Amino acid sequence: MLYRQVLAQKANHAAAAHFLGLLLHQTGRSAEGLDLLEQSVRLQPKNPDFLNNLGTVMRDLGRVSAAVDFFRGAVAIRPDQLAARDNLGSSLKQLGQFEGAEEIYRGTIGRNPFHVRARIGLAETLQEAGRLDQALAAFREALAIRPKDADLLHGLGVGLMEKGNLGEAAEHFRQALAVDPGMARAWLMLTQVKRQQERDAELAGMEAQHAKAPEGSLARMQLSFGLGKANDDLKDYGRAFDYFAEGNAIRRTGIDYDAARTRAEFETMKAVFDKAFFDKHRPSGIADDTPIFVVGMPRSGTTLVEQIIASHRQVYGAGELGILKTVVGKQFPPGMKGGFPWGIADMPDKAYAEAGQAYLDLLHARYPGFRHVTDKMPGNFLLIGFIHLMLPKAKIIHCARDAAATCLSIYKVHFRGDSHRYGYDLGELADFHNLYTDIMAHWRTVLPDVVHDVRYEDFVADQEGQTRALIAHLGLPWDDAVLSFHETDRPVRTASAAQVRQPMYQGSVDLWKRYGDRLKPLLDRLD
Question: Which Pfam families does this UniProt record tie to the protein (predicted)?
Fold first, then answer.
């Protein structure tokens, strides 16, 4: 190989080391490649292309914070390098550093107003930061420059869906598909905002795209989930399940999920946070009750319950926040004495008070001036022991729903990002639900009366009675707006974005029974 010959003659040839390193990374020998790339950057620390490429490799390897440093270096040396600016913006967005990402994207647009990728990045950053109206304005500005851009039309459609403008969202997905009929994610999104009522031309168009998409491809997966939803609407449950099964199988092959490790995490959390632990440790003295935590399995009514609470004039609905996990990770790092979570048992009580204060500082900085703020990260049910010790006055609302209904609802959804990795195989899904049921029973035993349970089925049967009990439990005065929650104007970024815009209906409670024997692998394993 040419690069190796050059390096044999001149070991410190920066370009040869760099391009050989890239080649090795691209052919799956990343560790070897990374050494050479780092060597090239040591030899030429002011080469912006080298810095940008090393950042890209770091990001590929999941080391996003390290990648940011290299992208920053590249931008500092050559401020007009668009590739490095795009990489820096998207990495900051990935880390949740929205202000930094916004600054980079706005700087890029200032330098190059026609650079659409930066405009999409800016709009998506504003969207993820919860500033939906500004995000929609950013998408519209970009569309004024490139009105036939399918990515922009799709992005604006997603934003409109999150705002609750479902008809307008559908129109933008259709416009994106008119530009690019093979845009699988636009087909998937269209099915989320449209209730399929007959086998129309659009459904035939989606089926044709599904037949064309290569087996096992991302497009095939997205179209499978969309066709599953459309056939579910049409009550053609056998065909719907076939599509859902295909979509889930494709998704599962691309996911690294370790069921044994997940079980160990749950068991360890129970072992650490046992009765003796709570006899020994006192909750912090923090009296701030701003946060309202909404926890439970996804698709168990968490988005619905948050929407109801957030319809109250004294509450701001912040959606799925990563703050709790961030704070716990910083205060109780994996490398702590004794390891995580075992070392927690020997931590002084002030550690929980410090973590609680750090959480509140982040929350109040992001959402200043609100009497209450909801934090609806479903998986926080695993961290209830932490929440109670850190913020004992914060309310914890747990959403429960029939196990089979919850699991089927998860199986029918293609989630964003890498969350809910247990959800793409019926057996793994059942096992995870069993672990969740078990740890919730544990919290009730060791922390009686700390968690307030809300049952989805009870809510659907008696919306007003259940809502009144919930508002009373939160210590809030009654507000009629909570009964017409579907009219509340706030962004909803979860898989339930379209559902929470509709009044509650009884039909969803026993829907899973229509799938009959197809759910046997799930039902046989549910406790």
Answer: Sulfotransfer_3 (PF13469), TPR_16 (PF13432)
Superfamily name with CATH number, domain 259-524: P-loop containing nucleotide triphosphate hydrolases (3.40.50.300)
Strand order in the sheet with 315-317: 315-317, 372-375, 291-296, 395-400, 451-455
pLDDT value of residue 484: 87
Q: Compute the distance between CA of residue 304 and CA of residue 368 in angstroms, rounded to an integer.
A: 24
Q: Do 259-524 and 1-182 fall under one CATH topology?
A: no
Cite the DSSP H helix spans in 254-396.
259-272, 275-280, 302-310, 323-331, 349-366, 384-390
List the structure tokens of 480.
């009629």
Q: Between the CA of residue 450 and those of 322, 360, 439, 488, what are the distances in Å?
A: 22, 19, 14, 29
Q: Which pLDDT does position 502 carry in this prediction?
A: 60
Q: Quote the CA–CA distance of 504 and 311 in Å, as a whole number.
A: 15
Fold of 1-182: 1.25.40
The pair phi, psi for residue 196, each rounded to 5°, is: -70, 120
Locate the DSSP E strands across 116-170: none
Cα four-point dihedral sign 479, 482, 488, 494: positive
373 forms beta bridges with 291, 316
List CB contacts of 211: < 8 A, sequence separation 6 or more: none
Q: What is the mean pLDDT of the chain?
A: 92
Q: Give the 3-state DSSP-derived string for 385-412, with helices as H, strands as E and coil as C.
A: HHHHHHCCCCEEEEEECCHHHHHHHHHC
Phi-psi region of 28 (alpha: psi -120 to 50; beta: other; left: phi over 0): left
Q: Which portions of the chain are predicted below pLDDT 50?
A: 495, 500-501
DSSP-derived pairing of the beta strands 291-296 and 395-400: parallel
Instruction: Give the tens place of pLDDT for each residue, 328-358.
Output: 999 998 888 888 899 998 899 999 999 999 9
Write the pLDDT tens digit of every residue in 45-62.
999 999 999 999 999 888
pLDDT of 489 reads 66
pTM confidence score = 0.85
Q: Please state, in angstroms and as integers, the Cα–Cα distance from residue 270 to each residue in 328, 344, 440, following that order.
A: 17, 12, 10
Residue ranges of the domains in the chain?
1-182, 259-524
Please state the separation of Cα 236 from the chain's center in Å. Answer: 30
Q: What is the pLDDT of residue 464?
A: 94
Burial (CB count <10 Å: 0-12, 13-18, 19+), residue 180:
middle
Burial class (CB in 10 A: 0-12, 13-18, 19+), 362: middle
